[in-house]
């Protein structure tokens, strides 16, 4: 047990939590923005994957990491807009359209890489580089905190900044009010003159951008190449975090961070003498426990509300 | 109305029956193409481009196509497990092949079921045997049309472990002189992967190391052989715990190991094929001491040769290892640069002992 405690309190573990949580955080905020705009973005996984692939390819061919990251995020934005268009213009079911986009991204990226590089696995044969790491001056000398924070990728910083930014956007800006109004009841929003479609398009574009940043982190921060289907279900875990977090920015932040911590724990415990099968269930078991807690809390609150109403 | 509908049904049913009859009819004149070449169909439960296992199989069969006069067709079923069983059924029931080749432990059940259904066809299973006993429902014809080849990856693991301990004990790797530990990162805990690891531990011990200095961890999760980010995270943790080198046995997830080796300024071994050759980044190349080869392609090429001469044994398992050159390690200029002469000689001696049978490497099977 003390070995476990040592692991959890080490700076290596905390740094790993930040790294692992980065794609979850960004994609979860992407899912949150779309959800609050009234269109479920199931295509987070596909947007991440497409952005990861585009980023590595463009960076590899142009030699510019920044250009690669921009193109990756732009592609994810386009996919977000496409999802919105399918839903709003053609009346498609957002879930079905999202599944379609995920399949498109999985097949499309593999096809693109194979066509360009004659490699069915990924872009590891193409040197593409990673986005720079950020070290704040002075932070490095602080014990523990310095070790945890120094050398983190710039997108990790961005992911943690995204929490207050999204909260500010939702609750302190006109666009945020409009977005939430549109998501709750589009008809009422329209009746007071809110441009419903424009708000939803903007929301889905923002959602795509956040998922795109998560994808770019995978192929240009975490590692420096793209591998077929490298998102490995992270988009769906992020989606779980959206609901686990109760559709609120700070709730989603905690949920995504929790998933990151569970996975980091699994990684660190894996080298101790614990059965690997047991260790790999940690993130999933935690999800179930958290969902059960969430449901229980809601039920209690619902009961209390019911009592209050009847009084 | 009802009559019309039943009439339509009758027409459709007749068409369907004719269609079935048609495919059955063409099945009779199977055997070979008009050109007389034997047709091999490689069915992959995953995808090409893994830089190791499947790519090696593909390369070996391509060589057989070019040099031995086979026709090769490749079917990739993708990583979605739910599509594998129907994929194999489709592949086996299509009449466009004479030999169906497939690999990994996962396919043995499918092949065991399909082989009796298509007794005129031949099946090659690499890296795991079908259940020839005919128990558990599969192989009702004792799989007498199935050739299985398995690899002594434990012997490759043995050499890796032996070399790892010699390097660590001899303080041969620059920048890791104070470290004693080494890491092995497996994809998932399955017998084939554990066979590498059991061998590694045996070799490590043989060279004078302690088992407690071997850190073992599995990638697991959604894509155990295709999640380089998680592979990098696990390797980073291993280096953090004082591993001088990490040996990934986890397909594309292992690509993450070479990245973390660069950051940690430590070392790694490659697996299955020569990963020094497939990496693009010179800094990553420098971390690869050697690659432990599991030459699936050579084994399949040899099977194709034996098939030509009629000496390939169906209905049985063939096990190949160091002695057959199906398993080995890369000894190139980079290896010579990193590994001192003395250790290289010792490694060769260890390999000879395994080849001659004077040392038996334990197995996970």
> How far apart are the termini of chain B?
64 Å
Structural class from helices and strands of chain B? Answer: alpha/beta
> Please, how many helices of chain A?
14
Q: Quick one: how many beta strands of chain B?
A: 12
Write down the Rg of chain A: 20 Å
CATH topology of chain A: ABC transporter involved in vitamin B12 uptake, BtuC
Q: How would a textbook summarize the main sheet of chain A? A: 2 strands, antiparallel
Instruction: Name the CATH class of chain A.
Output: Mainly Alpha
* CATH class bucket of the largest domain in chain B: Alpha Beta
**Do you know the CATH topology of the largest domain in chain B?**
Rossmann fold
Strand content of chain A: under 5%
Task: Produce the secondary structure layout.
The complex is a heterodimer of chains A (311) and B (365).
Chain A: H1 2-8, H2 11-36, H3 44-62, H4 65-88, H5 94-117, E1 133-134, H6 145-149, E2 152-153, H7 154-172, H8 174-184, H9 186-191, H10 196-222, H11 234-244, H12 249-269, H13 276-280, H14 282-310
Antiparallel strand pairs in A: 1-2
Helix pairs in contact in A: 2-7, 2-10, 2-11, 2-12, 3-4, 3-5, 3-10, 3-11, 4-5, 4-10, 7-8, 7-10, 8-10, 11-12, 12-14
Chain B: H1 2-28, E1 38-44, H2 53-68, E2 70-76, H3 84-93, E3 99-103, H4 108-117, E4 122-126, E5 146-151, H5 153-169, E6 181-186, H6 191-206, E7 214-218, H7 228-240, E8 243-249, H8 255-264, E9 267-272, H9 275-278, H10 282-287, E10 288-294, H11 296-309, E11 316-320, E12 327-329, H12 333-338, H13 341-356
Parallel strand pairs in B: 1-2, 1-3, 3-4, 4-5, 5-11, 6-7, 6-8, 8-9, 9-10
Antiparallel strand pairs in B: 10-12
Helix pairs in contact in B: 2-11, 5-6, 5-13, 7-8
